[in-house]
Amino acid sequence: MGLYFRCGPGFARIFYLSYMKKKAPCLLWPTLIWACSLFGQEVKNIALKDGKIDSALKNCYVLRVTDDRPDTSYIGLISAGLFGSNSQRINLQNGARAEISRFIRQNMGQDSTANPIVLHISQLKVEETGRSGLAVENELTFGLAFYRDTTKLIEYTGGGTAKSSGDASKLIGELIRGNIASMLHQFDEWWLKNRSFYLAIMTKPSIRVEVTFDQQSDDPDIISYTRGIVLTFADFQGKPDERSTAAAVSYSILLMNYSSIKTLNNEIIVDVSVLANFSKSKSWFKAGHRTEETLRHEQGHFDLSALIACELVDSIRRFPFKIENFGRELDRLQRMKQTELNQLQELYDRDTGHGGGPELQAKWDRRIKEGLQNSSCFHS
Fold it and tell me: Which parts of the chain have pLDDT scores under 50?
């Protein structure tokens, strides 16, 4: 007889306000057929074993439990009868909602002055998954969604495997009990870190995003782009990759940082800084290739980073952010512009032959110079 349990952050799915997904209707018909085929069978009830859970909830308390499953009359099948030749329906005593609610109320320490949370049972199913001799393996799938009022915050899915040559109902009860305790503690820790943001959303504050092109870095390895900056050979301090066909490499990327605060007049101010950074320790020149022409070509790579960084600033200024998704949208805009920069850098190298074509290099130099002069970050 054995008991296996799984439940953890890897099974978490976060739902933001604008992402309230519905289950596909086509998933309902197998459940209905299964239920009809079992009509008339007796149900074996499982009572969750009482026993105080070690760690109490500190940041929330469970106001109530609801059951969102289409069929709440049972949770699955286990083998019964001589040699497990028959199947028997099982359910939690008095139903899953009532029994889970009772178990939490009697065994989980809670602070009733903390934030009230509503638990929704999204999944609770037991299926036989294998046999070995007289031993039967039953798989539990269990899911709890955590709500604040009508807002879905996060959902955890877990479960486990119970192997038994006898009555598996007690093992299944232990699996459910362990999942409940684990998920509640996971949520308690998650809510501590995230409640300020969600509570701010619920008050429906306005949002103002302020963005600047940052021209300073505290890291001595980093050169942040400023208007008119010129790279020198001394800025290329990395070890050359002798396997590379390139004479030199410039490591220049876009960076974006942001933070938010809530003002007294119920406004969220998001402060965003965008940087075009050059890493000295990751940039290099090969011996014998330290020419002014190659250095000018590498300067172009840094200038292009600044141009795209400024475009990112403009994109952020124009974007209609919403309070519930500003973080995701900022990250998406940054990734989009970094992809554009990577493609532009490749085109620059290809067109100029990595700086080996003087006429094409001069053409790109003019294009980059005009772009900087016309940009909102660097124009005169």
Answer: 1-40
